[in-house]
Amino acid sequence: MRILLVEDNEKLIALLSDSLRQAGFTVDESVCAEDAYAALDVASYDLVILDLGLPDEDGMDVLKTMRFNRNSVPVLILTARDMLDQKIKGLNAGADDYMTKPFESEELVARVRALMRRPAQSHDIYLRLGRVIYDTVARQAEAGGELVRLSNRETSLLEIMMRASGKIVTKENLEMQLYGYDEEGSANSVEVLVHRLRKKLDQAKADVLIHTLRGIGYMMTDKEHGQAH
Prior knowledge:
Elements: E1 2-6, H1 10-22, E2 26-30, H2 33-42, E3 47-51, H3 59-68, E4 75-79, H4 84-92, E5 97-100, H5 105-116, E6 126-129, E7 132-135, E8 140-143, E9 146-148, H6 152-163, E10 169-170, H7 171-178, H8 187-203, E11 208-213, E12 217-222
Parallel strand pairs: 1-2, 1-3, 3-4, 4-5
Antiparallel strand pairs: 6-7, 7-8, 8-9, 10-12, 11-12
Helix pairs in contact: 1-5, 6-8, 7-8
């Protein structure tokens, strides 16, 4: 899951980015509205975390511009503005949640996960395919009741593929979701990651298949039926 974090406080953005990455999210950072607009133009995000006190434009205006442009990505507002009327203003402008500073990073991670589980985003807590049950909160996968040990990035790949089970996910899409701007990602690195995940799922007798569609991408299906339940 890929997040755009828009915050101009260097210490806070470093702290939040670290917490989110440890929780398994891919994070891109923007320190101003201009950078945020540029990022939104070239990448697809599962969530935007938006500070209102940006140096070049009020974050509320950034939110309004996103919604005017029909960008429906969930937005979690961060701000020191704790007055009720400000919260109402932000929610009415199209925000999905609102956190006032100061706050604990653990709460932010929990709020992010809750937003990503909303029905409109088709994000359930438990994903099931074949013998695999994936817990999106604990970020753990089991096959037949046995834990499947995966790296952070392998776990993210599994979640993406299970959410899109029965559908094609392009290599470009996977690269975009799994690697931030400051990380090395390529079609080849995606291939290696898919190979590792496929091997671990086979070893766990997970009864799922990751099909390779050459030149296009991948699709995960139930091994027995050849498609998602």
